[in-house]
Design goal:
Strand order of the largest sheet: 4-3-5
Number of helices: 10
Structural class: mainly alpha
Helix content: over 70%
Number of strands: 5
Largest sheet: 3 strands, mixed
Radius of gyration: 22 Å
Distance between the termini: 52 Å
Shape: globular
Strand content: 5-15%
Order of helices and strands: EEEHHEHHHEHHHHH
């Protein structure tokens, strides 16, 4: 692989291409991981598309909860199609090159859907709160117009915030090494290669990133606090079981998403090997989109019935 560079108009050079190393010197791991990721990629696309189709075509699934689940599936498809095809190529070739523009674009379509998913998970917890704590007003609060407005707000916020961050990232200079010891273009490995002062970018990550994580987290915690209070006050065991059944899938998805995100970006990285960092990155970019449709389909009776109904046609 040749190291492409373009001459800067003032002095020095500007990197026009990055080299992603993947898992170097681990041939057996790379072959096994390639096969595993290929299966997961196909399974994720099929699973999420199935949920989108079922929610669109099954009348019983025309409700706010399933509408937001289908939005989550679209987000998961965006993340995995952005990461895995290039990653498979890198694993096959024991490394690979990616242009600066392509790298920044990949980072954008990683950040924006992840921000979107934070907001969607918060909206879904709010939906469960209204359904369980205000069941008589549920249909008047969670109207089609309100659900569409919430969805548009999540999508607009996710891609707008992602765009603001990417504008900053695209303006920093890369004039030294162009080798990224990672599986894809992520913000932290890129910032380590920059020859610019990245203080403002790091500050922006904290100023924007902390509220993005904390506000949805607070909404989720508050929603489930009210839900738990309402469930514990209920004297009907049937009502309790139904409430836990409708919330358990969402709680599992929330737990997986936030633990992997916090594991990569929030928890201390001291003592963590590069291989461990790469594996953690795979968890939230590849395995989470794969697990989400499994959780919702296996633990949701309505979706299971819809699958069986379509299978008998």
């Amino acid at each position: 692989m040749n190291n492409k560079e373009t001459v800067d108009e003032i002095n020095g050079t500007v990197v026009a291409e990055f080299i992603l190393l993947g898992f170097q010197n681990r041939q057996n791991l790379q072959i096994s991981l390639f096969c595993l990721l290929l299966v997961i990629f196909c399974g994720t696309i099929c699973g999420n598309l199935l949920i989108i189709i079922l929610v669109s075509t099954t009348k019983k699934l025309h409700s706010p909860m399933y509408f937001f689940i289908s939005q989550l599936s679209i987000s998961d498809i965006l993340v995995i199609t952005n990461i895995v095809p290039i990653l498979l190529q890198i694993l096959l070739n024991n490394g690979g090159s990616i242009s600066f523009i392509h790298c920044i674009t990949q980072l954008y379509f990683l950040c924006a859907p992840e921000v979107l998913e934070c907001f969607l998970l918060a909206v879904m917890s709010y939906d469960r709160y209204v359904a369980i704590c205000n069941p008589l007003r549920y249909s008047t609060i969670m109207t089609i117009a309100h659900c569409v407005t919430l969805s548009i707000t999540c999508w607009t916020s996710g891609f707008s915030i992602g765009f603001i961050f990417i504008i900053k990232m695209s303006k920093i200079n890369f004039c030294g090494p162009n080798i990224i010891d990672h599986l894809f273009c992520d913000s932290l490995p890129l910032l380590e290669l920059s020859c610019s002062d990245t203080f403002i970018v790091h500050l922006e990550i904290y100023v924007i990133g902390i509220p993005i994580l904390m506000i949805p987290t607070i909404i989720i915690v508050l929603s489930y606090s009210f839900i738990m209070t309402a469930v514990l006050k209920s004297k009907s065991s049937v009502s309790r079981q139904k409430a836990f059944s409708t919330c358990s899938s969402h709680l599992i998805v929330v737990s997986i998403f936030y633990w992997t995100i916090f594991g990569v970006y929030v928890f201390p990285t001291k003592g963590r090997t590069l291989t461990m960092s790469k594996i953690l990155s795979l968890l939230y970019t590849v395995f989470t989109p794969f697990i989400n449709p499994i959780v919702y389909s296996l633990r949701n009776q309505d979706i299971r019935k819809a699958i069986l109904k379509h299978a008998t046609w």
